[in-house]
């Protein structure tokens, strides 16, 4: 039944042999490997005994990566790794940026001015591309003004970036390093809030400094009350650019500051820029829309109600790239929902059809209920079918590939977590799956149970673990699942407190106790 999928027909064997020989002659590195029939699993034929193939690919990739990025043996600091994460975030967000030339011009003029001034506020509704704009400005300004120091901070670029205490510590530490500031960087939020203006003042003596802080609305809503914006000086000698959602708490706090802050609104994307973005997004997949008078698919696309939002356009283009019937492409363009919430619901329906409703909903609900995302290993355990400890890698690989456009990886290696690319996806997941009574609470309870096992593997309250994430995440999910008695027992356990302090989570522990 499946012979054609695995065995080359006799009439094609010579062509295949010729192709293999050409590959061997044209490449300095070629290998041979074998495979065996593995039967049918979930109605799909499989090959097995591919261990040699796996090892060949893994070893070659490792060899190439080591050659391109040799290990110098130096251990990287927390600051270096954090900087890399913000650089990666900036690169991804600016990759598909188009237009906004007038706003970029205004930002350049502001950054080039030499007098002290209030920070400038970029604002707009969700989906209009504020993070992409901030990313493009940072990259372009650094390229065109090589003598300037551009310090960017993208809230949600890393697991710590939404913590205002860590943010101020990072900004002050970067400024201290760049401008040789003698003052020591304090540790507590109260001291950092007082020190930040002084570090800004001292950074005025040296090369020009531009600080960009994106997505103020994403700062943690904790006891430090970052959304009040008390930590941001009203006038600074260095240039500070911040961005936030229109009508968010941080927006309202800045709107009434004196002296008045300059505001720049990111509005609808003009029609010409919409077309450029569609062409650019589809070109990555070697695809395009017809623009002929008799079949103008582009016009159908940009006449959708929320095509003025880059987020809608990019999401719609990614969906079209998965559609394989060229003759029916116009019909598919017409079917695309005109609004971001309904478009994401449409995407979720397609994902459920491709990978199963239970698998997709469980994976997305776990991520939605997490604080800063979940690691791959955590998801593999949480999504394990009944009777198994872990989800098979083959199934995870398929699901991960289906979700990759809607998730982003935060961090490095095995500690990297999967989180949503945009909060609008989180909103769509919440609306679709958390309508079921108590589902959010039950999901938090499942996460609490998982992290409890990881944090206390012996089950005797000894907390004998090296899993710092489990120690960090457990109180949050106990709180969200309304397990008040268990939360009290955990946070009042001196051995748990000692373990948390051992992992350097003293300030996080204080937050846990405050919120409990």
Automatic annotation (TrEMBL):
Residues 96-223 form the Orc1-like AAA ATPase domain. Keywords: Repeat, WD repeat. The keyword Repeat applies. It comes from the Eukaryota. Residues 348-435 form the NWD1/2-like winged helix-turn-helix domain. Gene3D superfamilies: 1.25.40.370, P-loop containing nucleotide triphosphate hydrolases. One of its GO terms (cellular component) is Cul4-RING E3 ubiquitin ligase complex. PANTHER family: DDB1- AND CUL4-ASSOCIATED FACTOR 12-RELATED (PTHR19860), WD40 REPEAT-CONTAINING PROTEIN (PTHR19860:SF40). This is AAA+ ATPase domain-containing protein. It comes from Vannella robusta.
């Amino acid at each position: 039944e499946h012979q054609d999928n695995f065995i080359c027909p006799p009439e094609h064997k010579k062509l295949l042999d010729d192709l293999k020989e050409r590959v061997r002659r044209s490449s300095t590195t070629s290998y041979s490997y074998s495979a065996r029939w593995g039967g049918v699993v979930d109605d799909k034929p499989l090959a097995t005994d591919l261990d040699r193939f796996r090892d060949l690919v893994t070893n070659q990739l490792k060899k190439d990566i080591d050659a391109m990025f040799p290990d110098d043996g130096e251990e990287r600091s927390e600051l270096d790794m954090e900087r890399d994460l913000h650089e990666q975030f900036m690169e991804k967000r600016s990759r598909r940026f188009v237009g906004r030339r007038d706003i970029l011009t205004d930002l350049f003029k502001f950054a080039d001015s030499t007098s002290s001034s209030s920070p400038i506020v970029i604002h707009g509704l969700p989906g209009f591309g504020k993070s992409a704009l901030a990313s493009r400005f940072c990259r372009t300004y650094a390229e065109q003004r090589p003598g300037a120091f551009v310090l960017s901070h993208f809230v949600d670029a890393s697991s710590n970036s939404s913590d205002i205490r860590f943010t101020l510590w990072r900004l002050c530490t970067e400024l201290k390093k760049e401008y040789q500031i003698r003052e020591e960087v304090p540790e507590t939020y109260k001291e950092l809030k007082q020190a930040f203006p002084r570090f800004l003042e001292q950074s005025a003596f040296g090369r020009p400094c531009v600080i960009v802080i994106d997505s103020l609305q994403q700062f943690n809503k904790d006891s430090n009350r970052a959304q009040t914006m008390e930590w941001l000086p009203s006038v600074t000698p260095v240039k500070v650019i911040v961005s936030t959602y229109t009508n968010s708490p941080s927006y309202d706090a800045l709107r009434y500051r004196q002296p008045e802050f300059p505001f720049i609104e990111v509005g609808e994307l003009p029609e010409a820029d919409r077309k450029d973005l569609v062409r650019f997004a589809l070109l990555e997949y070697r695809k395009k829309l017809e623009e002929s008078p008799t079949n103008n698919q582009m016009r159908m696309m940009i006449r959708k109600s929320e095509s003025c939002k880059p987020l809608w356009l990019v999401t719609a283009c990614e969906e079209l790239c998965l559609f394989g019937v060229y003759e029916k492409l116009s019909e598919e363009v017409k079917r695309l929902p005109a609004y971001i919430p309904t478009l994401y619901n449409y995407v979720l329906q397609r994902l459920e059809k491709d990978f199963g409703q239970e698998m997709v909903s469980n994976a997305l609900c776990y991520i939605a209920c997490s604080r800063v995302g979940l690691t791959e290993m955590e998801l593999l355990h949480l999504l394990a079918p009944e009777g198994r400890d872990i989800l098979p890698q083959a199934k995870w690989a398929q699901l991960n590939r289906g979700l990759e456009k809607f998730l982003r990886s935060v961090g490095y290696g095995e500690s990297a977590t999967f989180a949503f690319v945009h909060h609008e996806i989180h909103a769509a997941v919440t609306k679709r799956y958390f309508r079921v009574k108590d589902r959010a609470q039950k999901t938090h309870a499942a996460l609490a149970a998982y992290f409890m096992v990881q944090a206390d593997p012996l089950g005797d309250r000894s907390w004998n673990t090296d899993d710092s994430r489990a120690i960090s995440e457990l109180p949050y999910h106990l709180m969200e699942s309304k397990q008040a008695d268990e939360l009290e027992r955990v946070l009042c356990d001196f051995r748990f407190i000692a373990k948390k302090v051992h992992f350097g989570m003293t300030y996080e522990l204080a937050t846990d106790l405050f919120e409990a």
